[in-house]
Amino acid sequence: MKEQSSLKNITFHSIKVTERTEWSFVEIFNGDHRCTVEITSGSDTKLVVQLFTELFDLVKGKGVKDESQVEVIASLTLINCNRINHWRLLSAPYVPA
């Protein structure tokens, strides 16, 4: 059975790899463990950071057992359709034409 985890804070990091390339990451901390995830999204990275921060503010300190609970805990609804669609577009897998 999965344990409930309460997210405590997030920290954003960037590493300049080349003159034209910068990798961005978010470090998520629950009080016991840290997880680092790459969030680089080209020219949309700043928007991803903004949306991730907004989403984190909605779930911070609340118990989460599974990532599927985040949408419910954050109360994401169709009222926030424009913001959610931005989030889903940015997090959707790339499918070449």
Could you walk me through the main structural features you see in this protein, from its secondary elements to its overall organization?
By secondary structure, this protein is of the alpha+beta class. It has one domain (6-91). It is 31% helix and 26% strand. The chain is built from 3 helices and 5 strands. Strand 2 and strand 3 form a beta hairpin.
Helix content: 25-40%
Order of helices and strands: EEEEHEHH
Q: Structural class of the secondary elements?
A: alpha+beta
Quaternary structure classification: single chain
How many strand segments?
Answer: 5
Indicate the radius of gyration in whole angstroms: 15 Å
Label this structure with key terms.
about 100 residues; alpha+beta; three-stranded antiparallel β-sheet; two-stranded antiparallel sheet; about 30% helix; elongated
In short:
By secondary structure, the protein is α+β, with helices and mostly antiparallel strands.
How do the strands and helices of this protein lay out in sequence?
Layout (H helix, E strand, L loop, with lengths): L4 E2 L2 E8 L5 E8 L4 E5 L6 H15 L3 E2 L5 H4 L7 H11 L6
